[in-house]
């Protein structure tokens, strides 16, 4: 009974590199992002992990990260479920803007509030709390049962959708979770107890 859950934020994307708000815009991985995804797969392989099922968002950068990880593990045919419930937070009117340009338009303080508050959404977009409102039910009803039945489950998604999930798993407050940084391409390995609480957590850094 492994009850193992691995969360991986996608590798560096083209818009991470350009300092743009990405959100639901569908952008590709950079060469570095591809290398980060493959390295994540290699670190999981070194831990002797094999997955029973994988979940990812419907955005290319997460899908490709998932595919690279599974290729490194020799599991290219593994059942992979894609759902927009795992998509990145929707940045609304900020999507596609350079972060410096957004600060020039709305002011540094306002942009900081949109980026780093828990429950204040940018215009036309989602707050982290809004993101959690779609991630948490999906996790509880669709992902968690595979883990609790003894499976080893991979979730390749995004900084904010995973931040919302980690908030629930680790019991963080809204203030605590917005301060938490999640590096691209670094697997977070959870082992769960039978009652769904966390038995252990490990960051698989290079």
UniProtKB/TrEMBL annotation:
Reactions it catalyzes: (2R)-2-phosphoglycerate = (2R)-3-phosphoglycerate
Its job: Catalyzes the interconversion of 2-phosphoglycerate and 3-phosphoglycerate.
Binding positions for substrate per the UniProt entry: 9-16, 22-23, 61, 88-91, 99, 115-116, 159-160
Organism classification: Bacteria, Pseudomonadati, Pseudomonadota, Alphaproteobacteria, Hyphomicrobiales
Keyword Oxidoreductase listed: no
Keywords: Gluconeogenesis, Glycolysis, Isomerase
GO biological process: gluconeogenesis; glycolytic process
Family recorded in the similarity comment: Belongs to the phosphoglycerate mutase family. BPG-dependent PGAM subfamily.
Quaternary structure, from the entry: Homodimer.
Cleavable signal peptide: none
Taxonomic source organism: Mesorhizobium australicum
Keyword Transmembrane attributed: no
Record EC number: 5.4.2.11
Protein's name according to its UniProt entry: 2,3-bisphosphoglycerate-dependent phosphoglycerate mutase
Site annotation Transition state stabilizer: residues: 158
Involved pathway(s): Carbohydrate degradation; glycolysis; pyruvate from D-glyceraldehyde 3-phosphate: step 3/5
A Pfam family it matches: His_Phos_1
InterPro entries attached to this UniProt entry: His_Pase_superF_clade-1, His_PPase_superfam, PG/BPGM_mutase_AS, Phosphogly_mut1
Active-site residues, record numbering mapped to chain: 10 (tele-phosphohistidine intermediate), 88 (proton donor/acceptor)
GO MF annotations, alphabetized: phosphoglycerate mutase activity
NCBIfam families assigned to the protein according to its UniProt record, in alphabetical order: pgm_1 (TIGR01258), PRK01295.1 (NF002339)
Enzyme class: isomerase
């Amino acid at each position: 009974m492994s009850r193992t859950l691995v969360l991986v934020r996608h590798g560096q994307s083209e818009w991470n590199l350009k300092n743009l708000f990405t959100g639901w815009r569908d952008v590709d991985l950079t060469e570095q992002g591809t290398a980060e995804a493959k390295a994540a797969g290699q670190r999981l392989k070194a831990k002797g992990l094999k997955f029973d099922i994988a979940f990812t968002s419907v955005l290319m950068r997460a899908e490709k990260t998932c595919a690279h990880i599974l290729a490194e593990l020799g599991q290219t045919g593994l059942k992979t479920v894609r759902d927009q419930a795992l998509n990145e937070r929707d940045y609304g009117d900020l999507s596609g803007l350079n972060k410096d340009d957004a600060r020039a338009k709305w002011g540094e303080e306002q942009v900081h509030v949109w980026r780093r508050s828990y429950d204040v959404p940018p215009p036309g977009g989602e707050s982290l709390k809004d993101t959690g409102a779609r991630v948490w039910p999906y996790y509880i009803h669709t992902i968690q049962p595979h883990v609790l039945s003894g499976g080893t489950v991979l979730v390749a998604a995004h900084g904010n959708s995973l931040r919302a999930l980690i908030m629930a798993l680790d019991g963080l407050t809204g203030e605590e979770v917005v301060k938490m940084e999640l590096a691209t391409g670094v697997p977070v390995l959870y082992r769960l107890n039978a009652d769904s609480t966390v038995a252990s957590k490990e960051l698989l850094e290079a």
